[in-house]
Write a structure and sequence with these properties.
This protein is an alpha+beta fold and 124 residues long. The chain has 3 helices and 4 strands; from the N terminus they run H-E-E-E-H-E-H. The strands form 2 sheets. Strands 1-2 form a two-stranded antiparallel ribbon.
Length: 124
């Protein structure tokens, strides 16, 4: 039951990230702003280019929990592959980067910090 809840939470997070990249932006007066600049990444949007959106994850791919981490990473990759096959998000393909924590919390923190410091990841 806990595993199922974690998987549902994971997919909910993915949907939230993907919906943040929608093609229209709402203004304070409730009208949509569909100008050509709405779909263009700003310089502050690390991990988004004209062609791709970079998403990363740190999973336990080895060690005692390696089976579960591999399943989660593989499932995420399948979802992103389906999105990419459907044309991506606003024409941008999702590039998914996976790092291995090996079940070690300190290594997970170090891998996450490494990716954050790279500055080219949009979401985790």
């Amino acid at each position: 039951m806990i595993r199922k809840n974690k998987l549902l939470l994971f997919f909910a997070c993915i949907i939230l990230v993907l919906s943040a990249c929608s093609s229209s932006q709402s203004t304070n007066d409730g009208q949509n702003n569909n100008s050509t600049d709405a779909n263009q990444p700003s310089s502050s949007q690390n991990g988004i280019t004209d062609d791709e959106i970079r998403i990363a994850g740190v999973f336990s791919l080895s060690g005692a929990a390696g089976v579960y981490g591999s399943i989660y990473a593989g499932t995420a990759q399948m979802v992103f592959d389906e999105v990419n096959e459907s044309g991506g998000i606003n024409g941008r393909k999702i590039v998914f980067t996976v790092e291995n924590s090996a079940g070690d919390p300190s290594r997970a923190v170090a891998e996450t910090k490494k990716m954050v410091n790279r500055g080219d990841i949009f979401a985790f």
